[in-house]
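Support case: user asked for a sample of complex input and structure output to validate their parser. Sending the pair below.
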Amino acid sequence: MSKIANAFKDSKAFIGFLTAGDPTCEKTVEYILAMEEAGCDLIEIGIPFSDPMAEGVVIQDANVRALKHNTTTDDVFDIVEKVRAKTDVPIVFLTYINPVFFYGYEKFFKRCNDLGIDGIISPDLPFEEKGEIKDIALKNGVDVISLIAPTSKERIQKIAGDATGFIYIVSSLGVTGMRSEIKTDLNAIIADIRDVTDLPLAVGFGINTPEQATQIGQIADGVIVGSAIVKIIEQYGENAKEPLSEYVSSMKKAANK
Amino acid sequence: MNNGRYGEYGGQYISETLMNELLYLEEQYYHYMNDPDFVDELNTLLKEYAGRPSLLYYAKRMTEDLGGAKIYLKREDLNHTGAHKINNVLGQVLLAKKMGKTRVIAETGAGQHGVATATAAALLDMECEVFMGEIDTERQALNVYRMELLGAKVHSVKSGTKTLKDAVNDAFRDWIARVHDTNYVIGSTMGPHPFPMIVRDFQAVISAEARQQFLDKEGKLPTAVVACVGGGSNAMGAFYNFIDDEDVKLIGCEAGGKGVDTPYNAAALTNGKIGIFHGMKSIFNQGDYGQIAPVYSVSAGLDYPGVGPEHAYLRDTGRAEYVPINDEEAVEAFEYLSRMEGIIPAIESAHAVAHAMKIAPTMDKDDIIMICLSGRGDKDVRSIAQYRGVELNE
């Protein structure tokens, strides 16, 4: 069983996202460890990018903050190295494909392998372009996480059929960001996916309150939260450890209610 | 063509949420381009509304002054709204309407594509919203008002570098939230497939007309076709129907800004590297670690950190060549064409004029250069005055 599967094994998984280098690389290490301790089952680390097209304002701003002091892909690997000295919590990268392409696919995934990165989520790499990295990633033990959107419809079958690790269900149309309610009929999407695969299913985009986490926990295997976490880091800067721990632990609990 | 590939370039590097919509757009595009009624309707609009065919004008004084190749201007500046942009926009907005969409969105740099989209949306009774970098809204306040006059809503984009690439980002962000009722009318031969193909096809009218006009006027094809390249839509349109005529040289002119050896330029094919951005694999100006680089040009319309995938392909195969033209050369050409022919070109198009001025004297009198005069320069008068240190009081 892959480490990603472990994250979903005993309970509803809580998956937390933060942007590497926001506010500093040292703090990212500290916050990742704090989140894990507070019950985060899988950590999603965003590699900062100049043009994060699929992000709402909150995560866009985190990218700006991280790039202001030139957080590089190598810095992100250094962060992971420091985290790995303390824990083997499953880690996936959230990255636009250009920084990976520029770094060189072979070199990038070799480093992922060395550091025990478990997966990669690329918002600008749909099924049709997955071939860019699929073989190199799998060869290095990195799952290319597939996204399924409310608009995917008949595409679900081929996407889910080819998926590994877990499946990232995009809860709503639009970019990332906190939403007051999720209107998509997730049950129908989940049923379609379940016809094809038994992989764990996690839902993200818009989720920020414990009530929403409970709701998602009742229908899926995991809850993904990004903007709400990044917002806490934005608000508390270098002093976000405690509020982050409190938030993560309340969300993990809510997802398993 | 497979999946929108031009050699290794092109493709569909975009959010899953948009994929079905892009596939639907491609299907509908092929459907309507094979529908004689649609083609008729579009051709009527191009003729009766945009003013096509555009003139192929022999620039006699310029030719005599430069003392070499004969120079012709393909007068896209005479189209309604003053640039080639209307060719693409009429096609895409009409297509959106046929697809049952009620709203179109667009990005714009200098404002020309935004104005053209707002124009077509007014004509075809569609809701229209335009994304424009905050810095560009300040530089081109007149065009903002023009779009509003045409009934469009203009969003001032405050993310990133607050210019064209960020306007594209926000247009995609809007579209991803409203795919059901909205089409993204992209302004150049860029973005994910099928956009580079659709925009190129709608702009190909430039070279289709020009080719016939040369045969009628000169009994032969031009020696060289010269066009400016930002994303590359007027150049793709000017090149396309000459690609199989191997003796016709195709030359694209990029924004060399303050010089390609300075950080202040937008010459992707000169300085850029292969990358994946805005839905396509192509050539982009980028820094270490693949961050998209800020770019600069005196011309807002060429101020884009990349180039359409088909241009990258034409360069690699050697079918077209691409040269940088710096600000000073473009401004001199802007002034030269104004004095010499009484035609004030867009500062974008002036990049092509500048290159023609360089090569014409080295060519034979039997040779012919076609310059794609992609737009008119009224919009640039103020900024060129500023560039020259002339104060205008209004």
